[in-house]
Amino acid sequence: MLKVDQLVKKFGGMTALGGVSLTLPDQSILGLLGMNGSGKTTMLNCINGLYEATSGEITLDGVSLIGKSPHAVFSEGVGRTFQVPRVFHQMSLLENLSVALLNKGLSNAEVAEISAHWLNKVELYRLRHNYAEELSGGQQKLLELARIMVANPKLVLLDEPFAGVNPGLALLLIRIIREMPKEVGCSVLLVSHDLTSVYELSDNILVMHEGKVLAEGSAEVIQSNPDVIEAYLGA
């Protein structure tokens, strides 16, 4: 579904991504690990069009994403959450979801049905008429995820979905993320410092270090990789 080939991103004289490659099969979850500054969020920003890659290729389902704006990338089927959720604070929860369904040719009844399904899924339906600013930080992350999912994406980019979320909401997020590939038919690229959740959810894991791929494999392979252990814990 997603292929990144020799992706390079430079900011002046600094190289944030130094030729990163990865593949993400259809209906699977790839965990992306790495210390702060390793290039994880830069990778997401290049995929969804916030940054323009210096060189390399990014394709989604065979379609190149290089040079496309964020809204064009969204139209190709890429949804994105952020470490600090970006919801429309002065709009209701229902209105937040309806934004993602604009220009989809749906009737008001269809928009209401899809929105209700996902607000129920993230356990926020009872607050559907509340302003988004009234939600807790964790609830705003759930709303942001629901806003992505109503658009039936091919690829979902999750940037630190568990950061600052209480344990109860984190368990709900884990359950939803685990079900997404089969329920919606999407692939998920999961960036998180919550190693336990990444190990539990991911079909495969890629570890980045200083803008390059350090290791890739199953949770068992990554946990026992000496290069990964040294990068996280020191020699």
TrEMBL record:
Domain ABC transporter: 2-235
Family: Belongs to the ABC transporter superfamily.
Any Gene Ontology CC annotation: plasma membrane
GO molecular function: ATP binding; ATP hydrolysis activity
Organism, scientific name: Nitratireductor indicus C115
Keywords: ATP-binding, Nucleotide-binding, Transport
PROSITE patterns on file: ABC_TRANSPORTER_1, ABC_TRANSPORTER_2
Protein name: Branched-chain amino acid ABC transporter ATP-binding protein
Superkingdom of the source species: Bacteria
Entries under Pfam families matching the protein: ABC_tran, BCA_ABC_TP_C
